[in-house]
UniProtKB/TrEMBL annotation:
Protein's name according to its UniProt entry: Glycogen synthase
Pathway: Glycan biosynthesis; glycogen biosynthesis
Organism this protein belongs to: Jiella mangrovi
Binding annotation for ADP-alpha-D-glucose: 15
Family, per entry: Belongs to the glycosyltransferase 1 family. Bacterial/plant glycogen synthase subfamily.
Species classification: Bacteria, Pseudomonadati, Pseudomonadota, Alphaproteobacteria, Hyphomicrobiales
Amino acid sequence: MKILSIAAEVFPLIKTGGLADVAGALPSALSGHGCDVTTMLPGYPVVLKAIEAAGAKVEVLPLDDVLGGTARLLAVKLSGMKLLVLDMPELYDRLGGPYTDTAGHDYGDNWRRFAALSKAGAMVAQGAIDGYLPDIVHVHDWQAALTPVYLAASNRPRPKTVLTIHNLAFQGNYPSGIFPQLGLPAASWSIEGVEYYGNVGFLKGGLHACDVVTTVSPTYAKEIVTPGGGMGLDGLLLGRGSRLVGIVNGIDTTVWDPEADPAIAAPYSPADMKSRLHNKRALEGEFGLRRENGPIFSVVSRLTWQKGLDLVAEICDELVERGVRLVVVGSGEAIIEGTFQAAHSRHPDRVGVRIGYDETLSHRVQAGADAILIPSRFEPCGLTQLYGLRYGCIPVVAKVGGLADTVVDANYAAVSAKAATGVIFTSPERDSLLAAVDRTLELYEDAQVWRTMQAAAMKADVSWEKSAALYAGIYRDLTKE
């Protein structure tokens, strides 16, 4: 099967979050299930530089009139992937990130930048490239969600479409005044189209128009059809019935492999956990932490309310009182960043903080810390806990979304069965988080129980294998239709 995947970011070329990891790793996993994936993404400067630096052979394919602009597709094989890069300098040649400028403000024309990606994707899906017609178009999040809308509005034959929701909180809603510039027929301005409470809803339109909706964990699929979790789209999603499917994310276990990770101080395995101590000592040195045998807890995340990191920032003093050392890596809301930095000022050898995103540092943190705190208020899937499992960094997580689906709580039965892989607490609140920390510390004090948990975590299947098979099954069912 020929699959056209369309995403706004793809690891290792461009990444701001888990979407990039999924879009980068899933194609390889699908190849073992009879799927030939081509991934389409915008031609950001960093992507074009990567192509140039690799000296890869590039085929240039012109595209006529992409929302009134001039564009071309660059067809290239890079980082083990077949890519189509939408080269449109007027939209993507920017100094900032994929969505925001250097000051962190959203680009004012983001609606056009990603409508163009969707429009170009629809053109490719209907034969813009000679000899290439995909069987399935798989689009990711609101940035590519207009692709099914453009296809549905066309009178020409179209492939079946799958839309994956990575985070329902980001929907791509814009003022109605942009509608005439989207190149859609007047009929698309309706409740069955892109109209959403008087605005243009990119994700809303895609959810109506696509053939199957998937999201990134079974529990999240149940949460988003409720008023509390549906972010205003619960009615629409509930109406999709069996056409809404939750498939838990995996990770690239070749990139995240503690036995062969070049980013960490020393390789280790479930059978050789003594070597893991070298990584803990290296992490202490990197963050200036006091060297001792007590636990290191960690945070590697966007520092936002959604992730519950305001709760962790509030309890830093209580963590220190309990003998915990804390390592924080991430960026986000200024008040949360400031609270962590203030905690570092009060406890410079107990709380280490690094504001910003650093991919290789995140590997070193997972390899050296004993536990990772993920108190999310909602979490579609989460990848950080999967990295933690893979590296024996015990996840301490709220019971939401994919966190609930991927971590086995260390209750009495699970510990007795040697099946526990983490600590789950039910309410993302300050006192519940502290109670979970206390329970984690009790487990840590029993060295044999802790090592057993680490071994069980590292042996958990966090790969894409099972999930890729489920995606391939959806594709096959759609092609039969």
